[in-house]
């Protein structure tokens, strides 16, 4: 049991969550996006997709394809205090209320 506890301390705390919102800001230099005031790190392994909107398959995208105002769903990993995007899905804008 002591070895397990020591392993958890050495690795740090990692937990996952989903987050949905509109991109408010993009920092291409730091590779971050801001949603609802939260700055999220986008890593080279982050999977980015454009929702198919009910027609065909989702399309693979890159960081440069993200735009301010995009509605996105982000699968987050929280490593210590840094939120990291594991997956970003650009949602369809057709079904928005306004």
What does this structure look like?
The chain has 98 residues and is mainly β. The chain has a single domain, classed as Copper binding periplasmic protein CusF (OB fold (Dihydrolipoamide Acetyltransferase, E2P)), CATH 2.40.50. It is 10% helix and 53% strand. The protein contains one helix and six strands. It has one helix at residues 2-11, and strands spanning 14-27, 32-35, 38-50, 59-61, 71-79, 82-90. A five-stranded mixed β-barrel has the order 1-2-3-6-5. Mean pLDDT is 84; it is low at 1-10.
Give a quick summary of the entry:
This protein is mainly β and 98 residues long. 10% of the residues lie in helices and 53% in strands.
Strand content: over 45%
Order of helices and strands: HEEEEEE
Shape: globular
CATH class value:
Mainly Beta
List the helices and strands and how they pair.
Elements: H1 2-11, E1 14-27, E2 32-35, E3 38-50, E4 59-61, E5 71-79, E6 82-90
Parallel strand pairs: 3-6
Antiparallel strand pairs: 1-2, 1-5, 2-3, 3-4, 5-6
């Amino acid at each position: 049991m002591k070895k397990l506890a020591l392993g958890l301390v050495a690795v740090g705390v990692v937990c996952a969550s989903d987050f949905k919102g509109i991109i408010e800001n993009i920092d291409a230099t730091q590779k971050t996006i801001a949603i609802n005031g939260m700055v999220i790190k986008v890593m080279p392994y982050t999977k980015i997709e454009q929702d198919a909107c009910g027609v065909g398959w989702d399309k693979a995208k890159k960081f440069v394809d993200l735009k301010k105002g995009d509605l996105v769903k982000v699968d987050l990993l929280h490593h210590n205090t840094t939120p990291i995007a594991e997956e970003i899905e650009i949602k369809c804008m057709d079904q928005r209320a306004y």
